[in-house]
Amino acid sequence: MGILDRISKALKELLFGMFYLELYKESVKYSKQLNDLMNLFLLGEFLGLPILSTNITLRLLPYLYKDLHRWKISQLREREVTDEVPDVM
To answer: What does DSSP assign to residue 48?
Structure first.
């Protein structure tokens, strides 16, 4: 890799960080929230919340199985109230 390639890569990363990093972080956070909501609707019966019928849940369970362990850990994690407060400048 030449010096010009490294400089152009560094410049691209700098511009991405300056303009799009906050938008990227917010979109990842929003995506995780929507994923948690979807898992709650589909797998809520495991928590005692009968939102959807068992037949639909059992049909979708093979697709959700790989994310089930991560979702359970994230839902059972202790959270601070200050984590949910938005940053005020």
So the answer is: T
